[in-house]
Predict the 3D structure of the following.
Amino acid sequence: MDLQDITTFFSFSNHSLNVVILGTVLLGITTAVVGCFSFLQKRALIGDAISHSILPGVCVGFMLSGSKNPVYLISFSVLSGLLSVYFMDFIKRKSKLKNDTALAVTLTFFFGVGLMLLSVIQNSGNAAQSGVDQFLFGQAAAMLESDLIIYGTVCLITLSIVIIFFKAFSLVSFDVNFGKSIGLPVRLYQFLLTTITVIAVAVGIQTVGVVLMAAMLITPASGARFWTNNMRKMVLIAGVFGGLSGVFGAFISFILPNMPTGPWVIVCLSALTTISILFAPNRGILYGIKTKKNWNDKLNKENILKAFYHIGEPEQDFEKSLSQNDVIFKRYFTSKQLSRGLKQLKKENKLTEINGKWTLTLSGLKEGKRLAKIHRLWEIYLTKYLNIAPDHVHDDAESIEHVITPELEKELEKMLGYPEKDPHEKEIPYE
Amino acid sequence: MDAFVILFTVILLASANGVLGTYLVLRKSVMIGDAISHAVLPGLIIGFLISGSKNSFPMLISAAISGVLTTLLIQYLNRKSNLPKDASIGFVFTTLFAIGIIMVSVYADNIDIDADCVLHGELGFIALEQNLMIGGMELFPLSSLNALVTLIIVLLFTILFKRQLFVTTFDPQYANAIGMNPIKWDNALMALTSLVTVVSFEAVGAILVIAFLVLPVAAAYLLTTKLKNMMILSVVFSMLACVIGYYLSQALNTSISSAIVTSMGVLFCLSFIFVLLNKRRVTYEGS
């Protein structure tokens, strides 16, 4: 690898290289876009089944044409891919086999037959046969301009079908029964969607080969799903992932000549998706961990404030200075929890600290009071409206006090008529 | 003699797969088995680089570890990130397989795992292997011994833990209630699957392992509702397909493993057709 290779690559001045880049990018985008629909139909692995089931078609196409004529290969692949999808649906419908078994049965049966045909071809000694088995691992770097024209056309047609039928395909992916009930030709749409999925797989195999084909469909869609709830945006993001990975794969196999393109495309896709899974806002794993931590901190802080309030309550003296042990004596906290919460409360100006002794500030007192109030109001609500025994209401109130909003609080007060005492004869503190 | 050694080995492997596959089909984890069979590739290569030889113990262990890691990763993704199960499966195994292929290209000079071996396996070469010698007596090839040991391990596991496997398969909630952890048993089963996969990988190729695990079992599943019968039937189907497939491959001059898988597929179709016809007759009589 040297700098010149990199500049050659990005100046896009090498014609045959441009063909490869354009080819992988187009294939990446097409498969990613189509894959979004399979992902949302919860048939993510269908790409895996189709890509394996295409092999017999490729072999028959090759045997009939006697050469690697892409038109023959693609049309027979699409035929055998479609056949496999219908075979799978048929055994699923007509027998007790579950989804995953039906998928695996179809995949292995078709692939087994395909491999058998392949070994017949290999043993027949046809000079043009070298390359049919490259189909198994992809051969993006060997793409010629004539191939590009065919694959490019197929990709563009597929993409335009997706754009034209975008709404119909979304409907089919989300709610088939609704579509049926408003009288849409759902089965036609499903057939169309299956067909373009098979076509996308048949051309996509050229870049990455049989095994990795599944990833071209699923991985970009899985990653894109983490960023948005909007179908259009999801398809766009997936397309961008697919395209970027195509460029990346072509780049690696150009600067490191021994490297296969397909696996690098997949590794790049997987990296993008892993980033999405970890860091995406709202749905990402790290975001989830952070939200959970914030929530636990909130609970912890509120419990501490309430404990301070309870300690001061009997003598109505809320300016007492308390040590950590005083607080733990009232309510159990682990010392780690307690010191963490105290520190955070000090930062929020709800507590002040002097020589290891802690005192409520005015805003801290107000919040502690409010929590105690909501807790007791809720206990009344449960006993009064749900007829729950007074000795069973504490735990429920303990968790609800953290989630009641100010609006609900007002509502609760009004509904219960500003009661003075809770079921345990404790006073309810109003402001 | 060659035919006997090859058939003997492949029948042993197919039986191990048939028994194990029964649980995979019933637990709906077939595709996890498929994922494992692909995802062991990087493990195989790392093991090979460490030990420097094929058919070695480190290779088996590192492949089995990568199989178990695959399962755990799929479970983790599925639970922590709400990625649907099938999408997590597809995502994990393709990533690992891609890494595996890249490793093959990087270490191409040191490794003789080639495309053909990954696809077809090397059943035909078993007979060419050096025979194992014990006390001056010529026995069978090492691959056959591997297959035999695998079958024994699988049988021991399923017989010893029959009760636990049964309960966790059919009623995970109940199993949980009586203190058997279904996830733990799942992982144990997946570890075993990795082992069987790795041993079969050499013989039948990565992609067709899953055929051995699922096709005969699916055929048996259609015909019976009893676990024991299902197991016996799937082993019988496996053996039958091995014999038919072997002679088919000899007649048509094709690779042995693909012919066996094709025969398994045909057996499945026959059993499916049988069920379809029977169903029709029953509904006819009932109406």
About this structure: The domain at 2-209 of chain B is CATH 1.10.3470.10 (ABC transporter involved in vitamin B12 uptake, BtuC). Chain B has 13 helices and two strands.
